[in-house]
Amino acid sequence: MSEKVEENIFLFIPNLIGYARIILAFISFYFMSTNYLIALASYAISALLDAIDGHAARYFNQGTKFGAMLDQLTDRCGTMCLCAVLAHLYPEHMFWYLLSMCIDISCHWLYLHTSILQGKSSHKFIDMSENRIMNVYYTNRTVLFFMCAGNECFYLAQYILHFTSGPIFMGLHIIKVIQIISFPIAILKSGISLLHLVVACKNLSIIDCNERKKVVKKLE
Prior knowledge:
The protein is mostly helical and 220 residues long. The radius of gyration is 21 Å and the shape is globular. Strand 1 and strand 2 form a beta hairpin. The chain has a two-stranded antiparallel ribbon with strand order 1-2.
């Protein structure tokens, strides 16, 4: 009997889309200080592909842990670099951009790492789905897309406004309107990230307690 050929997950369609996102993100970073149109287009396309790779993973049944990690890292690094640029463009608001970066990176990292450590081995672990708001956030893809898109729109609007006020419609600056409308969404998104941090800390404490109990039993 011939051996079954192992799948190469690195060439799965959603992961190929993920690589394209990274390339577009790098292009965006390169042009952020010199050509805001190229930077904006590259960043926006990379962000939109974030929704497509998830659909591709489900459609082709090619969801993988590698792909999930790749997607998460691309999201976090993309937003972080955009905030770093904004901190340079708006030095008077640097503290808030740095705070935003810290919240985004630390909360997602700890929650993801704790989820891997816990392995759902205890009923005491806090499940985000038990919270009504978080249940909607995780199960309704429209809500999730709206939240993520709104958050990105706020930072991108901030970026664009440094170079141009954009088109005017009925006496209103469209980019400024987008900035104002998306600001509450960005604040809410940070609040949800902090909720992830609280839940992760509580679950991590449960892991520590369980491990300490095992150590005590071995010593008895």
